[in-house]
Write a structure and sequence with these properties.
alpha+beta, about 20% strand
Amino acid sequence: MNIAFDKLDKAFENRVRLQVMSVLVANERYDFNSLKDLLNITDGNLASHLKGLEREEYISVHKSFLGRKPNTNYEATEKGKKAFKDHLDALEQLIKQQKKI
């Protein structure tokens, strides 16, 4: 049995969540519309994945107004950064285990 599989985080199994976390770990904050454009996905699709990451407490949400327009920014939490790093480490271990076969 591969131990690395046990360390993979189900929150990052989806491509969109993996991409969102990659962007948020690489950048201090990112706003909703910029994420949507970057990932080329619909409002609803992005919103549902952001909610999932927020539920896990992997991201935090910051709502404000720019003039009269609402602006929502997202930021990776410390818990989220650690979980993402652990997930990437597990993927790396999985790859290394495959080389030994």
